[in-house]
Amino acid sequence: MIMPNSGNCGYAYYTSTNDGYRGVWLLDSGATDHMTFTAMDFTTTSLPRRTNIANANGVTSPVTGAGTMTSSPKLQLHNTLFVSSLSHKLLSVSQVTSDLNCIVLMYPTFCLLQDILTKEIIGCGTKRGGLYYMEDLSVG
């Protein structure tokens, strides 16, 4: 289902119960923004560019903050939204490919983030239960 973008409302299309991988980022092609449920992920904070997000069921949740998450000195996720009601951290395919100038390669059992210019692998994940869990978001 395609939903119109209603200004300050972002979207998160993954919903689940706790599966033991709560602290790992999930690659989400339906998320408009990177999102985390813990403020401890932020190295710097900023004003959020959205006021709320809507999940796949249409339930909205408030965005209570934003900031930059730093995985390594060269890999930073800017404009990450803080949504305390999330069950998982979401890595937006749209945002990561734009911000990091990379491509996402999805294979049957794993995925890779690859820098377009240098061809360097800047992230990798494993597919479990139909979802890609990003275990390594670092350069080199």
Automatic annotation (TrEMBL):
Domain of life: Eukaryota
Family matches, as Pfam families: Pol_BBD
Domain Retrovirus-related Pol polyprotein from transposon TNT 1-94-like beta-barrel, first and last residues per copy: 25-98
Protein name: Retrovirus-related Pol polyprotein from transposon TNT 1-94-like beta-barrel domain-containing protein
